[in-house]
Amino acid sequence: MIRKYSIGRLYTSKAAMFAFLGVLILTLVSFTSLGEAEPTGYFAYAVNGFDENLGRFDWNLYITEISGTKDLKAVSLNHKGMYPSWGPNGDVLYFIQRGKGHADIYSVDPENPKNKKRITPISGTYRFLSVSPDGKKLAFNGYTLDQLPQENQIWVLDVDTGEMEVMTQVPHLGWPYSFYGISWSPSGRRLVFSLSRPGWLEHMYLLDVETKEIEVLTELHKDFYPVWSPDGRSILFLRWNREFDTFYTIDVETKAIEPLFDVDKATGYWGDWSPEGDYIVYSRWGSIYLYNFATDETEAIVEVDGSIFVIAWSREGAVLSVEPEQKLVTTWSALKRGGNQK
């Protein structure tokens, strides 16, 4: 104790001063640590590559836990599937599985991957998937087995009742328009989606799930794979041009667009936000990259033997009971800068 070593008021004052400074330094360190917290959670993603149980050249589901360690591992769920999307509590993972000319949406418990449940009452051709913030509804696009490809629309499915409702009425005029991404707003009131238009362009739109009114978000560009930020203020998306893809964010209210960084053309497939919104995770060929908003740096954190497509970052989640099957490599990568940076 300080009292044991005190030999006078001067020393007591100095000790008190150092004690105060020590507390102050610890406090500053604590706040610094909070401001630069390491990312945590789980990534779910689809890999087109070899799987010991499922074979090669098909989309298989994997999960990686990120918890401060750089020795990240891929855990196979032993399910063929694409477009993974987490429930709000991280205890259920939804995905789309194709087979024999049709597709369905399934759910799986990550801690018991064998417990797979079919969600869609009607099979069809479905793509892209987003879970509502309360976990009660699923948004996706596609058409049923009784429909033509030209009838491709956005659907919302009630998880409890299985009821499927068409949310859009895009006029096809005999040509099958394609959707390129869909994401639910944190408020649960709107969806953002990308839709191909004549001229080989992809525009982004906002859809009110109650009124079904549609608002134009971007035009005259190839904008795709939108993902709503956790705070609801902005949307992450990719914009394509002839040389490279660029990650952008757009302010939902002001429509102001800001570039983040460029990636090689046709290699930055899909991104997602961290639960706190301070990181972005995205795929590029067989690697998963982590972008830090605070430092403006990116790091390759996972590498697999195959091609990674959709990535979903869990908001919650428990430790997986499945033993990891593959040890992956961590490398560093510099950003490829474009001429339109902030």
Commentary on this structure:
The protein has 342 residues and is mainly β. It has two domains: 1-34; 44-332, Neuraminidase (6 Propeller), CATH 2.120.10. It is 9% helix and 52% strand. It has two helices and 26 strands. It has helices at residues 2-5, 9-35; strands spanning 40-51, 55-67, 73-80, 82-86, 93-99, 102-109, 112-118, 124-131, 137-144, 153-158, 164-166, 179-184, 190-197, 201-208, 214-218, 222-228, 234-240, 244-251, 257-264, 268-273, 279-284, 287-292, 297-303, 306-313, 326-327, 331-332. The strands form six sheets. Strands 24-1-2-3-25 form a five-stranded antiparallel β-sheet, with no helix packed on it. The chain is globular and about 50 Å long. The chain starts with a helix and ends in a 10-residue tail after the last strand.
Q: List the uncertain runs.
A: 1-35, 317-342
Give me the CATH architecture of the largest domain, please: 6 Propeller
The overall pLDDT, averaged over residues, is 79
What is the overall number of helices?
Answer: 2
Structural class: mainly beta
